[in-house]
Amino acid sequence: MTDRRTELADNLARVEDRISAACAKAGRNRDDVTLIVVTKTYPATDVRILSELGIRHVAENRDQDAAPKAAACSDLPLTWHFVGQLQTNKVRSVTGYADIVQSVDRVKLVTALSKEAVRAGRELNCLIQVALDAESDARGDRGGVGPGGVAALADAVAAAEGLRLGGLMTVAPLAGPFARRQRAAFDRLMEISSGLRASHPAAKMVSAGMSSDLEDAVAAGATHVRVGTAVLGVRPRLG
Ligand SMILES: *Cc1c(COP(=O)(O)O)cnc(C)c1O
Asked: Where's the Alanine racemase N-terminal domain (predicted)?
């Protein structure tokens, strides 16, 4: 094995141990949690190695970086998640490779995604990004819609042609009442998810938890964790 392959395999094994331990502690099946590796800022060669090591879900947060990488990896059996703040002028490009957009946070974006999904003849799975640092239905500092805006946005996604409502995503907030309280933040997300599932039973995905807090997310009930640094290493500052 090359050095990089060995490094990624070792890191993946450690992350896998952490997820398994967290599942065991929470009385959950390991199969109920999907690992998404966030490959932003890392090259397509790393994505290829991850695929060879059995990873099936990868995530990116900037279209400029993601589009060429996804094209270089189009022969691989990967599901691509888009997790970054998304401008409507990037929607056509993102729709070309993303299977799941986790950062849906406004109606204007729903309209654009629907239009491009229909044009491409694809069905896009969409998660509503919940901002736990925002009041009511305002937008959050790092993207996302406040808890009060989730229901209306979910209805808009569910009604939009070409889109499917998959569930919810959050990034643990740096500010506000949930700052440095990851477990409480993820518990709150699960509460919002229960409310959502009352009207949209199929919207079961709950994407929460990153390298530093995946245990809290698994304990709270997340179905998907998004791990970058712990698998690929510390990123250069950008990204
Ligand atoms: C970068 C990123 C992650 C991964 O963060 P790490 O701390 O590197 O694990 C997860 N989710 C989103 C939305 C990200 O942008």
From this structure: 12-236
